[in-house]
Structures are given as C-alpha cells and as structure tokens.
Design brief:
The chain is of the alpha/beta class. It has one domain: TIM Barrel. The chain is 39% helix and 13% strand. The longest helix has 15 residues. The chain is globular and about 55 Å long.
Amino acid sequence: MKTNTKTLNNGLEMPEIGYGVFRVDEGEALEEAVVTAIKEGYRSIDTAAIYGNERSVGNGIKKAVDQGLVKRGDLFVTSKVWNDGLDYEGTINAYEESLEKLGLDYLDLYLIHWPGNKKYEQPWKAMESLYKEGRVKSIGVSNFQVHHLDDLLSYAEVKPVINQVEFHPKLTQQEVREYGKKHDIQVEAWSPLMNADLLDHPVIQQLAQRHDKSPAQIILRWDIQHDVVTIPKSMTPSRIRDNISIYDFELDTEEMKQLDGLNENARSGPHPDEFDF
C-alpha cells in the first residue's frame, strides 16, 4: 500500500500516514512491528527520546533495510527532544544521542516534544543550527498551542514544518488547525484513535458498518480528509495493515460533519498549558 504525501513548507515530502510507537516498550516485538509496518507500506516512523524505544525502532529499520524491503532514503523518520531545561548544547547532544540509538546518520524530522512553560527558545535555536548545517532534514514542534506558536514565530529564523498535537473526533483542535493553514505549518495527529477509546462510539461504529471498514479506518480517513498527517499505533499485524488501507473509500460532507460534531475538547493526554514536565 502506497500512501499519499504532504509537501511541508521547506519542500520536503512527508507521508500522510505514519507508524507511531508511543507507549511501546523496547524489545524484539517492536523491532518486528516496525518491519511489519514497512512491509505493509509505511514509510514514516515516529518515535521520541522519552519513549525509551529509539534503539528498537532503529533495529527494526535496519532489519527492513537489510532485508531489501526499503532504502533509508525512502523512509521519513521522526524523533523528539524532551526539552526539560535543556540549553543549546544540551539539545545538540540530545539529537546526537537519538541518532546513536536509532543507528542513523540523520533524522527527517526533529520535534520539540512539549512547550513546557516556554522552555523551547534555546532548544529551537539549537535545532535551527542543526537544520542550517544539513544535519536534520526538517524541524518542528509538538503540543504547541496558538500562543506558543505566536511566541516562537516572533524570533524563529526557521519556521516549524510540523505541529504534532493530540487530534481525534473528541478533540478537533480547530484553532490550531486554522493557525497551521494560515502559517503553512502542517498539523499532525498523535493519539488519533484516543487510545482506542473512540472505537466503540456508536456514530463511528455506524459509519464503519456503512463503509464496510473498521472504526479505526473511519477515524484515520477523517484525519486525512482534514489535511492532518496521522500516526496510528498498533502492534497487531492485521491492524497495522488496516490502518494504512484507507484510500479506497471517502467520507462525504455529512459524515465528516457527524464526526466533527463529536468534539468535546476532551484529551487523553495532558493540556500543553498545564503540563510542565
């Protein structure tokens, strides 16, 4: 299965569906899941330093490359810096540590994981240096609200290509998405299935039956029809396959409105304005 791509504001192409590994433990099972995802057509892999699983993700990528499934240049690999009080040099060191664990020479995307009471100025300046030196292909942010983005853009020399936020039918992030469109910052969804809590929702179940698709496929289709990049997580091969198989149907305008109407501004993770590491 080949996924469509989004063109980021620096011209880089990013697959609109990726494989996420949040809350997955280091180990051989994750390595094999990464191989499975690549076999099924995923070309974007998303991890983070705080997940504690970069080494296994890297081992999975290496296995896939060694098996001839893919070349490194075909993959879009993302990691994130946990910027709790990090200064400029600390951020550079964190990037190098992520590369070492992943066994890679560069990342396609490096994100600041949380704004953390505006603890991002020095990390961002360090990431700009990495980008200008060609050591990372693109840089962005995660969990930034509009006021964080306004603050960052007031001094940034390089505009973030991505803002990765919690996004699902119960948290539609309209203000963040409108800001992203206005400033050409691509929105990306983490926890698109709300930790599977949405899969039993009657509206989503009804749409799944109507389209002969899984509830997860309905939600992920809603993501991409909202021009949001999405990174579902699963360790189950059949679900890994299903999650990328969303290009043979489309939700109509009324169905999109139905899903939009589920919004409650409800989060499965912390609010960025309240979470300070």
